Amino acid sequence: MKKRLIFITLCFYLLFSFGPLFAQNSIVVSGYPLFSLANFLFPKAKIYSILPPKGDFHHHELKPKDLQAIKQADLVIIVGTEPWAKRVFSLKSEKILSLARPEEKPKDPHLWFSLDRVERLVKELSRFAEKKEAEKVLAEVQDLKKERAKLASCKNKTFFHLGHRVFYYLVEGTGIEEVPLVPAHQHGEVSPGTLMKFLKALEAKGIKRVLVSSSEFKNYENYFKTKGYEVIPAYSGDEPIIISYQDFIKHNILAIKKALYCEE
Fold first, then answer.
1. Residue 155 lies in domain
2. Residue 244 placed within a domain
3. How far is CA 112 from the centre of its chain?
4. Per-residue pLDDT for 3 more than 80?
5. Which residue of 79, 105, 228, 262 sits 20 to 30 Å from the alpha carbon of 28, by its own alpha carbon?
6. Which phi and psi angles does 97 have, rounded to 5°?
7. Do 118 and 201 sit in the same domain of this protein?
8. DSSP state of 217
9. What element of type H or E holds 70?
10. Three-state SS at 75
11. CA distance 44 to 49
């Protein structure tokens, strides 16, 4: 009878304690939006970000310490479009979760802006996270989807971005077009020809507002301000953010609406 009681007690302990206990261990993430999301879902966990404070999502390569952290972590959360993603997927570990599947070739690498993918990821993570945190995030993602859908009703359909194209998934299916200063993810000074082409496109549309989402392009802010343009701050997700993932997405939706002259 005593052994049976111990067995039943152990079963209840494992049933109700496994998730939160797991969540208190070590988690590795590949970048800042995922760090923010994991930090909310697992407030007691030790979270290690592979991307350093001044790293570049598109060009950062795994260091030996990163690979070691991945192998030792209890949970690994990646985007799946990192230049080293295949190397991590090759480990074939069930503890590795991602926004993209190993065999996928997404249209755009910035999958942290895809609310459908984030929703799926949170549902997968809810096996380990505190239930109330996971439910809160899922409810807020639904609210964000509704806010995103409102972009389709904006009269203007084009916004201009002082940076690379990053907002593909936030405007996908809404009829909104993002016009980036730099089409590809190249670094360095923007050529005078590229800058003039961007300015002419703005003038042709009669638009006097532009987004800037990365410190890499901050040096162009004053130039556009002297030309009479309003510069609207946004977040690309390529740099550290000190707000929740939900606020990160909401801020960008509102910034895009403002760039479209679509404020409510």
1. 151-259
2. yes
3. 3
4. no
5. 105
6. -120, 150
7. no
8. G
9. helix 64-72
10. strand
11. 16
Residues 104 and 203: their CA atoms lie apart, in Å, by 39
Q: Indicate the SS3 state at residue 47.
A: strand
pLDDT tens-digit map of 23-51: 458 999 999 999 999 999 999 899 999 98
Assign residue 187 a region (left: φ > 0; alpha: ψ between -120 and 50; beta: otherwise).
beta
Look at the block and give the residue holding tokens 């507002």: 209
pLDDT bin (cut points 50, 70, 90) of residue 240 is confident
Q: Looking at the domain assignment, is residue 110 inside a domain?
A: yes
- Boundary residue ending a domain (87, 113, 147): 147
Tokens of 9: 């007690």
My answer on whether 172 and 118 are in the same domain is no
pLDDT for the residue numbered 1: 52
Q: CATH number for the domain including 112?
A: 3.40.50.1980
Query: What is the rounded CA–CA span in Å between residue 10 and residue 209?
Result: 61
pTM for this predicted structure: 0.88
Joined together, the tokens standing for residue 181 give 């200063």
Q: How many CB atoms lie within 10 A of CB 252?
A: 23
Structural domains in the chain (count):
2
Q: Which CA distances in Å does 205 have to 44, 89, 124, 135, 209?
A: 49, 44, 43, 42, 11
> Does one domain contain both 136 and 185?
no
**Residue located via tokens 């990646």:** 78
